[in-house]
Design the sequence.
């Protein structure tokens, strides 16, 4: 287990962008290691940081520009996600990458837009719409050197200089602290529906999703839910459909006329794959929210949650293997490309076994939810080959040479 | 445009270096004869030319790794090159550098329909990927206008776009993984057939890095199922301002068309003269809106779009009835550049992006500038995403015309930045816009970008002289407590 310091200095609450610059510059001068926080809702992601002081961004809040017809929203980094979603809902728009909200409803969404971007976690629509990183158009930040810089812009077609937005997304605050972000928004679909297909086996549920994706009916989500996970659903129809068989959940979205047309066409196409049920928008949205929020595999004291990213076609066989492990619950999303696993804790909590299963296919295994002592003891992120890790360390040093921003949050030295 | 001063000592070692490279990757992969190297003198920005010291054409990833290690150990500069179609001079050679051309690495390695992915070597053309999978109804979405010739490796280096970016994204949004070779000769894999590789998103950083960070040796892209139906609307307006508003209104109604292109009157007439697509010659602006998807959706949305643009004052609307007609609608737009080439001896193609609502302001500024510089301008836009391609008409044989055209172009790009936009939407910075980077970025912004470069290439051996107007030594960039506001090292090479 690695050594770990808890902050000893009183938290530093920054007032504005200038104050952030001042705070980081003085931290750099005194080599004070900072634990960068918004509302703390994503604190359980990644590794614990070795920090001397909490740098709180909560005061950096508020939407500064929102132009729906330009598909652009600019906000201070610690603007609550719920506030962003409210503004988008009012204009009939959305964050198309479907961030985890930590809640079933927009009103109850947890955390900040900066936290969403820093962790780069995306929901069911990610497989067609792109990840959080694809929607970060630009940002203003202060590097670990205590220097202000910006990158990107408010336009969506831009190749001027390196695309640092991609690098900032998913960097867990280890490179620089963003204080303003520019996000690409998208129109919300007018309608949605999900087709449930109860297939005789996981493999056949996977085959139904593959067939749907090989059609021109444009599904925007595809999940496989086995009975032992569906039993924890609050959605009656999903529970019922998955009573005895694994269920393929295939969603379409768009204009109402198109949704009806495509769901009918998919239903016809997948006849023979298993018994079917169609969920209209409201029920479909709730099922998708359960899939997004992992509510069917909630955090528990004696369990950890893993996220597996793998080539979609191996998702079904991998899921099958994982479900055979004692006491494992798991379901697949992204047409097989994402597997959520609830694994009993103890020993390495399944780390080595899961990574061994995934390695031959390419992909990675990330610890998403676990008590702190377990997160301290395990590789939270997939270990990287040495040349890649060394390059990542040099990238870190190019932004934060003193290692004062969220030290250790991702890897040793990063 | 000033390039780094060639190192004469390096050039004197040319024959030794050529022989060393031949020993590493085979004599058939090395060209050192000036005549044979002439095809590598320039890329799509053909106003700029230089004969490289040596050209190396690796056949494998291992060859690339050997070349990189050799160049690092011997301090030899490298200019990576795909198909040489860059419009910003990204592949402009250096007289004291080796061009590493990826054209021999031109095989598709894996077509994986189950994972909806294609793995290709970097020299495969963009269109060849679509050709390889279209039999099964798939295609690769990004479609730069050079797609018949440009390579997928070059697309990664430039983050290439096309007319369908608004709905389908640029290269970066369609790229799943790469294999690359670093300046140290290390082979690194980023991403794959899975999504969201853990760790830093170096895949995202490599995309659009213009050959300054590493050489891509293998590319994995996602392929999409072809839409069942496509229809195009040809919409005329007697005021460009209204056309601009109509574009915003369509998006505000929740419709993201597959493509939304705009042409101004000079471009309309040049294109119509060239292909007779039935464009309304009297219109001040023309919109081409393409809708794709399931038939029921396309039919419904076509009617909605027609309604929206009518309410915004469209003077003519035609909807394509057949696939041939849809292609004819596009033929005019796609031939806009050669069409302009017919009415003017020379033209410069610019590539800025602005927030869409600034379009009327930009158009009026452009017409003022046109008078000021005494040069005509025709405009084609990717209107949906605000990406402008003003074509500045001039005659290189007229003394001073080229210089005025370049000044006009720079003035347009500066205006783009002033209006909240950017210097380049899809063509890249290269050498063309290098010296304008200061318009968009502060000294600290640029230094941070260059520090990132130092993490990949501390010796500045990869494509030096591109993208950054001032070449800072990595040691200097790494120093803390740099003074703000003034340039601290007047002795540094600036070009």
Sequence:
């Amino acid at each position: 287990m690695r050594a770990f310091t808890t902050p000893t200095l009183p938290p530093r609450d920054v007032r504005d962008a200038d104050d952030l610059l001042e705070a980081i510059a003085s931290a750099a001068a005194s080599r004070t290691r900072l634990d960068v926080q918004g509302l703390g809702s994503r604190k359980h992601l990644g590794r614990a940081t070795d920090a001397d002081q909490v740098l709180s961004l909560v005061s950096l809040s508020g939407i500064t520009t929102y132009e729906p017809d330009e598909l652009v929203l600019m906000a201070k980094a610690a603007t609550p996600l719920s506030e962003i979603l409210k503004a988008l809902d009012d204009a009939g728009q959305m964050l198309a990458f479907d961030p985890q909200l930590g809640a079933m409803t927009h009103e109850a969404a947890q955390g900040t837009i900066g936290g969403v971007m820093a962790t780069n976690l995306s929901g069911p629509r990610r497989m067609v719409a792109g990840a959080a990183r694809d929607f970060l158009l630009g940002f203003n930040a202060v590097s670990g050197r205590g220097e202000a810089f910006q990158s990107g812009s408010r336009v969506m077609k831009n190749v001027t200089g390196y695309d640092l937005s991609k690098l900032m997304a998913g960097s867990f605050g280890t490179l620089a602290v963003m204080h303003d972000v520019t996000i690409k928004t998208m129109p919300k679909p007018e309608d949605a529906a999900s087709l449930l297909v109860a297939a005789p086996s996981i493999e056949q549920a996977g085959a139904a999703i593959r067939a749907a994706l090989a059609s021109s009916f444009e599904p925007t989500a595809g999940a496989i839910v086995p009975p032992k996970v569906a039993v924890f659903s609050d959605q009656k129809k999903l529970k019922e459909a998955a009573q005895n068989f694994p269920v393929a959940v295939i969603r379409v979205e768009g204009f109402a006329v198109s949704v009806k047309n495509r769901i009918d066409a998919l239903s016809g196409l997948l006849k023979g794959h298993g018994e079917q049920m169609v969920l209209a928008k409201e029920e479909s949205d709730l099922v998708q929210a359960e899939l997004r929020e992992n509510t069917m595999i909630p955090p528990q004291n004696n369990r950890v949650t893993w996220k597996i990213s793998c080539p979609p076609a191996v998702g079904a066989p991998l899921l099958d293997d994982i479900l055979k492990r004692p006491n494992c619950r798991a379901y697949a999303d992204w047409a097989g490309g994402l597997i959520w696993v609830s694994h009993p804790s103890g020993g390495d909590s399944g780390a080595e076994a899961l990574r061994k299963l995934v390695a031959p296919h390419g992909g990675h295994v990330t610890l998403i939810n676990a008590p702190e002592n377990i997160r301290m003891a395990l590789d939270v992120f997939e270990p990287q080959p040495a040349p890649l890790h060394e390059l990542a360390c040099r990238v870190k040093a190019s932004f934060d040479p003193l290692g004062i921003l969220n030290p250790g949050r991702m890897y040793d030295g990063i | 445009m000033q390039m780094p001063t060639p190192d004469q000592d390096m050039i004197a070692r040319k024959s030794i270096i050529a022989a060393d490279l031949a020993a590493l990757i085979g004599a058939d992969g090395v060209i050192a004869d000036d005549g044979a190297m002439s095809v590598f003198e320039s890329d799509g920005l053909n106003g700029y030319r230089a004969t490289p010291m040596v050209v190396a054409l690796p056949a494998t990833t291992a060859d690339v790794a050997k070349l990189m290690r050799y160049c690092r150990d011997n301090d030899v500069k490298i200019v990576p090159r795909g198909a040489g179609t860059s419009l910003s001079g990204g592949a402009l050679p250096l007289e004291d550098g080796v061009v590493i051309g990826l054209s021999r690495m031109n095989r598709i390695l894996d077509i994986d329909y189950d994972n909806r992915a294609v793995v290709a070597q970097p020299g495969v053309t963009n269109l060849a990927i679509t050709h390889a999978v279209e039999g099964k109804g798939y295609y690769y979405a990004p479609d730069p206008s050079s797609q018949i010739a440009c390579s997928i490796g070059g697309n990664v280096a430039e983050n290439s776009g096309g007319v369908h970016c608004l709905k389908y994204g640029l290269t970066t949004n369609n790229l799943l993984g790469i294999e690359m070779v670093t300046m140290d000769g290390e082979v690194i894999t980023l991403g794959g057939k899975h999504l969201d590789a853990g760790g830093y998103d170096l895949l995202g950083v490599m995309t659009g890095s213009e050959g300054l960070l590493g050489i891509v040796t293998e590319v994995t892209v996602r392929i999409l199922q072809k839409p069942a139906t496509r229809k195009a609307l040809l919409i005329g307006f007697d005021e460009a301002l209204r056309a601009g508003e109509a574009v915003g209104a369509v998006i505000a109604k929740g419709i993201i068309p597959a493509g939304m292109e705009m042409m101004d009157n000079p471009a309309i007439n040049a294109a119509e003269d060239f292909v007779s697509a039935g464009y309304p010659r009297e219109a001040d602006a023309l919109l081409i809106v393409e809708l794709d998807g399931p038939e029921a959706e396309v039919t419904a949305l076509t009617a909605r779009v027609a309604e929206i643009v009518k309410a915004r004052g469209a003077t003519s609307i035609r909807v394509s009835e057949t696939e041939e007609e849809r292609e004819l609608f596009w033929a005019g737009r796609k031939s806009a550049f050669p069409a302009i080439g017919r009415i003017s001896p020379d033209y410069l193609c610019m590539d800025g992006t602005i927030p869409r609502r600034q379009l009327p302001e930009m158009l009026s500024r452009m017409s003022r500038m046109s008078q000021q510089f005494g040069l005509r301008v025709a405009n084609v836009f990717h209107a949906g995403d605000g990406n402008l391609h003003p074509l500045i008409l001039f005659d290189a044989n007229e003394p001073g015309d080229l210089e005025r055209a370049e000044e006009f172009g720079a003035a347009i790009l500066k205006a783009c930045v002033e209006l909240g936009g950017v210097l380049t939407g899809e063509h890249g910075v290269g050498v063309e816009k290098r010296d304008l980077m200061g318009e968009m970025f502060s000294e600290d912004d640029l230094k941070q970008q260059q520090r990132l470069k130092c993490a990949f290439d501390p010796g500045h051996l990869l494509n030096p002289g591109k993208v950054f107007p001032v070449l800072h030594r990595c040691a200097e960039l790494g120093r803390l407590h740099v003074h703000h506001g003034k340039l601290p090292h007047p002795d540094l090479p600036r070009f």
Remarks:
- The first helix of chain A runs from residue 17 to 30.
- The mean pLDDT of chain A is 96.
